[in-house]
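Researcher: I'm comparing several assemblies side by side, and this is the next one on my list. It has 410 residues spread over four chains. Same procedure as the others: predict the full complex and return the structure.
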Amino acid sequence: MVQKRQKASSTKLEAVAPKRRGRPRAYQPEVALGKALDLFRSEGFAATSLDDLSAATGMNRPSLYGAFGDKRELYIKSYQRYRADARAAMSDIFRDELPIRKRLERIYAVALDIYLSGDAGPRGCFTVMTAASEAVSDPDIRAMVLEGFSELDKAFAACFRLAKEKGELPETADPVILAQLASATIHTIAIRARARVPRKELEAI
Amino acid sequence: MVQKRQKASSTKLEAVAPKRRGRPRAYQPEVALGKALDLFRSEGFAATSLDDLSAATGMNRPSLYGAFGDKRELYIKSYQRYRADARAAMSDIFRDELPIRKRLERIYAVALDIYLSGDAGPRGCFTVMTAASEAVSDPDIRAMVLEGFSELDKAFAACFRLAKEKGELPETADPVILAQLASATIHTIAIRARARVPRKELEAI
DNA sequence: TGTTTTTTATACTGTTTCGCATAATATGAA
DNA sequence: TTCATATTATGCGAAACAGTATAAAAAACA
């Protein structure tokens, strides 16, 4: 629970005076979490030290613990943040009623933006990275990753189902199988991006 | 170069008396490298310590250094070994002249065997795991990973090209694009295997 | 002004890490 | 036997690591 500055029963909602008691925070939790996510995405869990995180967020270690818990908890919160961001970036695309082809194009374009961003080289898909590393030994993290996969599968399947209803796809097309293929394509792109396959080639796929 | 016991100009080739000078080795390099590979595959580079490697191989640290160099070199040699093993497992399939459908089935079956093996949970594809972790920051490793991807792409493309010549595929089919799709499928399977998606589901894909 | 509360800043602890130096050991050769 | 060589075994040392204890600082409140 990040406990969002509970305003003392004032009239207007949100963005009003914090009116907290002690010394004010020198950081913004949301911003700091974003920085932590950036680091984890480019280095991975094991290769990211608390000192690195401290430097990146501008918070010293005790503050990190106070705000997010230990390293593992911070990783989990970073991952949840990543998923929320990704969902936000995708949701409007899944909402718009475009023809399936156009829609897929836009989905892959957004995915490429996410995967290729980053100062220290492309960062790929955090879900895929986590699956490749922590998901094996940590059951909680594994559960989140599995959920991430199935969320993507389901979103794609919904797209294809809709397209089928609108007659854009033949009757024989199976939305679930098509969705898995579409997810697979997302995954290769994410992985190849990490190996710095140029954007041009990825777009071709 | 692992320098395979150079026999002193004897008659028979291989498997003859080593005739080395000093204290004999207490380990077999090939076996030890296999153990190191196993560990790296299940834990990843950063989470595997030299003590772990020492325990797994039965060699103490100085011997490890003497035989394989530092941790990074050992990782690279392990990866090369992995690729050699995978190539060996696949080569006979790519050699047999089966119909394309049968051939694909066998390829995916072998891939599943490789990805799901391991005592401490499924270990996935080492190329994919390396791409997700070390490939970003280490140019040499990145180059090897890229080579791994293109090797798989090319092998699949060759399959599809052959199938097209034999009339098993329509004229309109593009072997290169089909190969990328087939690789993508391999990659999702590898990733999902790490997240312990059950074999049944993977087979369905 | 002084107290309470919350956060920051510094520093400490015990462990783990990597790489290597040194000594002991086991073999072939002289 | 004795020497040269190649490996093993022990363990050192400096750095990095995760997590925490303690003190200083900054705000609201009384």
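Model: For your comparison table: Chain B touches chain A at residues 42-44, 46-47, 120-124, 128-129, 131-133, 135-137, 142, 145-146, 149, 180-181, 183-185, 187-188, 191-192, 194-197, 205 (CB under 8 Å).
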